[in-house]
């Protein structure tokens, strides 16, 4: 019965090649996800309580307000109630509103906090470390084209470690200010934020309020931002963690304090923001108010990158694992067919014999 033999082998051959293809696809899929995981590395986040350490917190600001510089007052008040004329420490340049926010990805802030980028976006350690290497100067104000109807306020200033209040109000219409009266039609607190960050100034690090715009047709409008700041350490070398923690606890006197200026670790500050902005009656002070609180914790984000050899070992493991398991499954399948075939043979229904049972039978003949 040569015809029957041929048919049986064919059936089995088709089955096993389908199985081989399945195994190869599984291998490719698993190897692919392994390689993808290797590229991203594994990131761990840990929080630790920061006890009583207090050092000054630098605030970096770059904002364009749709009013003339001469009409604006910039103030800061810290937890102790100390009042700083922040306007004197920051630079104010006349500019044209329409010159800003072009060619950049600028997003609009809603009334609530929708539309703000999530924290997850800031958790790529390599992006953060890479961005921290870039230059640390505020860009120059471009030459004014168009009406000088806006004011760019920018620079860095020292704040208090615990909390603070930063406000931009109209001349003569801020707290503790009883100056000359400014015509209300000049009020326009529409603004574009290019940078609002805390700690060392790293222009390319993304913060929630960077590149945001808010406009209002109302002269009496109060923009309010509540920022919750979390000191954050980024590192791509998990072996540095104990040292980083020690330096963080004693940032001023620790002999290795420069570790946060290395290419493997930075210390910066992330923040979450909620905004509550609304129109106010004419008896209130319109303006831009930023209130910030610094959380008494430190977030440490460490990334481990496996190295090429480790990837190789994992790939070999995955592929050989799939092959071995695949072989077992095949054998069990084969054995199952055999048992089933024997049973059906015993019942005498030769017509439904499985492939290997048939083969076995032929072997006996
Ligand atoms: C303020 O300026 C912006 C941008 O030019 C404009 O869209 C808005 O209507 C102005 N608001 C007021 C109150 O003039």
TrEMBL record:
Keywords: Endoplasmic reticulum, ER-Golgi transport, Golgi apparatus, Membrane, Transmembrane, Transmembrane helix, Transport. Residues 149-328 form the Endoplasmic reticulum vesicle transporter C-terminal domain. GO terms for biological process: endoplasmic reticulum to Golgi vesicle-mediated transport; retrograde vesicle-mediated transport, Golgi to endoplasmic reticulum. The chain crosses the membrane at residues 16-32. PANTHER family: ENDOPLASMIC RETICULUM-GOLGI INTERMEDIATE COMPARTMENT PROTEIN (PTHR10984), ER-DERIVED VESICLES PROTEIN ERV41 (PTHR10984:SF81). Plays a role in transport between endoplasmic reticulum and Golgi. This is Endoplasmic reticulum-Golgi intermediate compartment protein. It comes from Massariosphaeria phaeospora.
